[in-house]
Description:
The complex is a heterodimer. Chain A has two domains: about 1-40 and about 185-380, no CATH class; about 50-165, abc type-2 transporter like domain (abc type-2 transporter like fold), CATH 3.40.1710.10. Chain A has 15 helices and four strands. Chain A has helices spanning about 1-15, 20-40, 60-70, 80-90, 105-120, 125-130, 145-165, 190-220, 220-225, 230-260, 270-295, 300-315, 325-335, 335-350, 360-380; strands spanning about 50-55, 75, 95-100, 140. A four-stranded mixed β-sheet of chain A has the order 2-1-3-4, with helices on both faces. In chain A, helix 11 (about 270-295) runs antiparallel to helix 14 (about 335-350). Chain A is elongated. Mean pLDDT of chain A is about 80; it is low at about 120-130. By secondary structure, chain B is an alpha/beta fold. Chain B folds into two domains: about 5-265, Rossmann fold (3-Layer(aba) Sandwich), CATH 3.40.50.300; about 275-370, Alpha-Beta Plaits (2-Layer Sandwich). Chain B is about 35% helix and about 25% strand. Chain B contains 13 helices and 16 strands. Chain B has helices at about 5-15, 35-50, 95-100, 120-130, 145-150, 160-165, 185-195, 215-230, 240-245, 265-270, 315-320, 345-355, 370-380; strands spanning about 55-65, 65-80, 80-85, 110-115, 115, 130, 200-205, 230-235, 250-255, 255-260, 275-280, 285, 290, 325-330, 335-340, 360-370. The radius of gyration of chain B is 24 Å and the shape is elongated. At the A-B interface, helix 1 and helix 9 of A face helix 4 and helix 5 of B.
Amino acid sequence: MKAYLQLTVSQLKLFARNxxxxxxxxxxxxxxxxMFGFLFNNDGPMSLDAxxxxxxxxxxxxxxxxxxxxxxVLNIKTSDTEAAAxxxxxxxxxxxxxxxxxGYGDSLSKFAQVSEPSSGxxxxxxxxxxxxxxxxxxxxxxxxxxxxxxxxxxxxxxxxDGVSKELVHFTPAVTVAEESVQSQQLSYIxxxxxxxxxxxxxxxxxxxxxxxxxxxxxxxxxxxxQSTMLRPSSFIAAQITARLALNGVxxxxxxxxxxxxxxxxxxxxxxTLLFFVIIGTLAFMSIGFIVASLARTxxxxxxxxxxxxxxxxxxxxxxxxxxxxxxxxQKIVNLLPIAHLSTAMRxxxxxxxxxxxxxxxxxxxxxxxxxxxAIASYTFKWE
Amino acid sequence: MLLLDRxxxxxxxxxxxxxxxxxxxxxxxxxxxxxxxxxxxxxxxxRVHADDRVIEVDGLFKKYGNFTAVNGVxxxxxxxxxxxxxxxxxxxKTTTMEMIEGLRKPDGGSAKxxxxxxxxxxxxVKEVIGVQLQSTSLFELLTVEEILxxxxxxxxxxxxxxxxxxxxxxxxxxxxxxxxxxxxxKQRLAxxxxxxxxxxxxxxxxxxxxxxxxxxxxxxxxxxxxxERGKTIVxxxxxxxxxxxxxxRICLMDQGSIIALDTPDELxxxxxxxxxxxxxLPDQVDGYQTASSAIQSDSHIPxxxxxxxxxxxxxxxxxxxxxxxxQQVELRKDTYVLYTSDLQATLTNFVQLMSERNITFTDLRTxxxxxxxxxxxxxxxxxxxx
Lengths: 383, 386
């Protein structure tokens, strides 16, 4: 018991004094969170760079151009000529080019004159519309990018539709009241922060344990302890305790940073969250011990651990939802512990889920923990 | 005139476990007072403790694949004795020690420490031994004091840390992290850790390898003080001077086997020569004398040209063997070594012979025979092979 306590305290001191390791293991996830958070955390719809080429230069054309600027979707950039704008479009600097050709103002006023009487009379409307030629503008967009193409079409249609309707004093017969179906407003950062915590638990333990144990074994640190009366169980228990403390503190720090900078919240219970931090730590520590045993040298332990953790980082639902992946990839990914750890953390934080709805994640993570621990204790060697 | 061939020497040396009847000081030519004191201390303690075996090693055998690291080693270590394992790298010293410590499982034979068999009661063995491994690695970021407290917690009983720090001259380093310690300080810390459980037997595996001379002396002094307090110490080294100064008995090992086991003085006495005369011939290349005259500036004379002086090495060695008092002649690299029991007669005759034959020699020196000579005599190789 005193050996266990002494080793735990010693390990915590080692953590505290290894500044480089602390900085790396804590700032790496925080850096990821800040980077991805600021890059992709755009509330509201995405915006599209567009350029309006006004060749008409009338009051009507300027009015139309300003309406494009007010959509909130289009980010208007100035281009001198149509050719320059098209060039920019080809180089993906723009997503949309709208050309208001010469004569737009004239056509519009002619059309307005023809249709004007129809607003007064109820019968002549359709005839009057047919009589005038509609004013025409041109939109050029990149059809290969479906998202921006769709946005461009929708924005241009909305603007022109508005102008048309105003011109003919159109009164809608049916209106749509918009309501959001999501009860809570979740943005990408709400998805990201739990994933970052899961990633941190994985890399700290898998890579950290594998590297440290392999290096201690290589340098004979473990061998020296083996020649004392220290029991392996005390040593491993102390390792687990110290790492749990470290990971718990680091998880809380990351969650607090997420809360203060991005306003993410823990909607479920902290107890449930902590449970998954613990079970995740144990599962990945055991895998780390296995890697340390498999690696012949400490130089090979780190690459092996990276080989395991890197794909898990990108496929395991840390940064991107697993649902967006191809079907066969999903089947594989759903076997990985990281997928269940990030999902569980996410559910607890975002929807306030309890154990009742997380039993799949608990079972899979628990299974990984037990199997990996069994293999780890079977393969563990002091030297 | 007794010329011992190597096989013969081996047979003579093998009868072991000779009692240490004679613990007197060898009248060495250049013995420092340090060494004399050391030998004085050794003999006193040895008389106090009689034949009380703390370690019993019986037929230890270890193989790695096809390589036999330890080939049936047997010996016993008495309480209070400093027992040395001396041999070149790869002789099996470390493997032997680690099998006694229980760190390696022997493929054959047994080892008992304080009556506990390493195969059946390893925890009991670990409780009564202290181990300093050849390359002790500790947590670099812990302080000396923290490391000691940590290792103390691994045992049911441990000694107070303060006196241990004093003994190991680490008092002013107690708050210093391990990574800032010098090589000698690290080694002393390793010994402090090995003593934390107040062991009956202390194992020191090459404790001074890689240390500077000052640090070595400090460590020797520590070992001798531990011995004064009655600690049994098993020490491995490839420095013959270290073995001579520290050890009551030395077990000479080579290629996994014991080739001799006795007190340092008895081992040297087995050479039957107390002194050695060394010299070189100028222009000697790889043991073959190419030039005979003193003229070195123009030495492209074929060997046959010089009439008397152009002895082939074999012939020269034959001549040297017939000098009065010479018991043995060896050519090591480019140095001739004459072992003699009568230094004065041999030296006089040697100088005379060389003058008569018109042979120029350089780098003449005389010295007392050492354990290194014993080892070379028995194996044909030095303790530290280049």
